[in-house]
Amino acid sequence: MIRVIQWATGGVGRAAIETILDHPELELAGAWVHSADKDGADLGTLVGRDRIGVTATTDAEALLARDADCVLYSPLLADGKTLRGILAAGKNVVTPLGWFYPDAKQRERYDALCREHGVTLHGTGIHPGGITEKIPLALTALSGSVTAVRAEEFSDIRTYAAPDVVRYWMKFGGTAEEATSSGTADALGSGYRQSVWMIADALGFDLDPELRVTHEAAVATAPIESPIGVIEPGQVAAQRLRWQGTVDGEPVITAAVNWFMGEAALDPPWEFGAAGERYEIEIAGDPGSFTTIAGMHAHPADDRAPAGGPRVVERHPGIVATAAHCVNSIPYVVAAAPGVHTYLDLPLTAGRAAPHLHRAHRSDRSPAR
Ligand SMILES: NC(=O)c1ccc[n+]([C@@H]2O[C@H](COP(=O)([O-])OP(=O)(O)OC[C@H]3O[C@@H](n4cnc5c(N)ncnc54)[C@H](OP(=O)(O)O)[C@@H]3O)[C@@H](O)[C@H]2O)c1
Predict the structure, then answer these.
(1) Of 17, 15, 19, which Cα lies nearest the Cα of 320?
(2) Which domains does the chain have, with CATH numbers?
């Protein structure tokens, strides 16, 4: 069995623990927690299941001294020093916080560290880290002469129960000027930029040196219940960000997000349109394709609040998908040669059958068996 440590137990971390517990090749070895009140908590009960006898700890050093193959690193903010410490402790790392497609300097630095300690680093998630590059790349294989690739998210952020991420990362609740001039596009863009460059490099686009970045904000016209409390009229309640790779000034690769606190009280009056919350992937080529990914947004039945209250969802499907993408990559990451491995380096990764449907894996199975 592959032994896995979960680093932080927020929404992603708790969903990851569940996915690890249900994965036939993985075993939970422990978890690091930031919150002192979770120190010593049983990780089964922490995710609403039976006790499993494996507990959370705030003691990073003691945790890293444990026998484990891989760490799933998903704290609030990425801390390079901590991450390098985990790699130096001889643990492979999978993370949704970056390293999807590091630039040459970062790659060289992390490649060297990984090789020194015999481990692999892999960045993955949902958006970025999946829907913005891995799935579009797979779809382009069905087209000749690709001229453009677009991946775009349309999400109601009222259901994202991570107030710190929503307030400090995504900059909701302040003024429009604060949001659009706060470096948000730069900070969030570190991942989305990597998605754009990964597609460009894999398909062979000769992009202009600088990506085009646009960031627009809409404000509330009435009080809106949200994960960060009530957003008052005049405060930022929706954002649209685009990161685009251009050739001679013409956009060819686009990663974009439309994050709204609902649609009822926005100025400008932005809407998701009839298709609602979704992810879209559009390939222009011969032939082109248009794909909508649904089911990764919260269903009203997931709401924990009474009707009319904030639509905060404890276990958001998009967060569960992020965790699953990380967890499902672990067997492939552990088997990989030391170094930084992106989607362009790893083999096709897949999920696993549910525990009650699973049978032992046989690599010699052929379709004609
Ligand atoms: N690439 C993707 O597709 C994708 C998708 C979703 C999220 N993410 C990223 O994944 C990360 C986790 O997201 P989430 O939804 O799980 O957020 P969350 O629910 O807010 O959880 C973050 C956890 O980080 C820990 N934490 C809090 N303050 C901290 C601090 N000052 N230093 C270090 N750790 C701290 C806490 O862990 P304990 O509760 O254990 O104390 C907290 O529960 C975020 O950075 C988010 O942007 C990426």
Answers:
(1) 15
(2) 2-126+321-361 (3.40.50.720), 134-295 (no CATH)
